[in-house]
Design goal:
Blueprint lengths: L4 E8 L3 H10 L1 H4 L15 E4 L6 E5 L5 E11 L3 E6 L10 E10 L2 E9 L16 H24 L2
Antiparallel strand pairs: 1-7, 2-3, 3-4, 4-5, 5-6, 6-7
C-alpha cells in the first residue's frame, strides 16, 4: 500500500520483546479512544489482539458484541507486527494497514507505526471527516503520537 500514510515513532526503555508484548498484550491499557477516529458509532469498547499469525485486532463493546478491526497480516515477534484496520463504515475495498516495527537501539527500542492505505478511503468519507488529505493525515498522526505516548507510559509503569 502506498499513498496516504502516517509515520510515527518513539523510543521506549524496553527490549524489543517486551515492547512487542506490551503493544499486543496490553493494548487495552494504553489505547485511548478518539471521537474523531472511532471504529463504530457506539461508545468505544475495549481493544485486544488475538495473538498469532491467524489473530485479529478486535473491539469488544459494552454489550459484548465484537467488532473486527482487522486481521493480523504479519506476526514476527519481536521485530514486526502488521494488521488490517477498518472502521464499521468502510466499504469493500476501503482498506488501511498498520505496520509496527520494534528495533533495538542500545538499551532502548524504537517503535515505529506506519498507518497506510488512506488513499483507498475517499476524502468525503465519514472516517476522514472531509478533511483535506494533509490535514487528515496530520490529525491522524497526532492521534498516533498520543497513543504511543500512552503506550510508553504503560511500559514505564512496569
Amino acid at each position: 500500500m502506498t499513498g496516504s500514510k502516517v509515520l510515527v515513532s518513539l523510543r521506549v526503555r524496553a527490549t524489543p520483546q517486551r515492547a512487542f508484548d506490551a503493544f499486543v498484550g496490553e493494548i487495552g491499557r494504553w489505547w485511548r479512544a478518539s471521537p474523531l477516529f472511532a471504529f463504530t458509532p457506539r461508545d468505544p469498547g475495549m481493544l485486544s489482539f488475538e495473538p498469532g499469525p491467524e489473530g485479529r485486532l478486535i473491539e469488544t463493546l459494552a454489550n459484548g458484541k465484537v467488532f473486527e478491526i482487522g486481521r493480523i497480516r504479519a506476526w514476527e515477534p519481536p521485530a514486526r507486527l502488521v494488521f488490517g484496520w477498518r472502521q464499521a463504515t468502510f466499504a469493500p475495498g476501503q482498506d488501511t494497514e498498520v505496520s509496527v516495527r520494534f528495533e533495538p537501539i542500545g538499551e532502548e527500542t524504537r517503535v515505529t507505526v506506519e498507518h497506510s492505505g488512506w488513499d483507498s478511503v475517499p476524502q468525503e468519507h465519514v472516517a476522514r471527516h472531509a478533511f483535506p488529505n494533509a490535514l487528515f493525515l496530520t490529525r491522524h498522526g497526532e492521534w498516533w503520537r498520543s497513543l504511543l505516548a500512552s503506550y510508553k507510559d504503560v511500559l514505564g509503569a512496569r
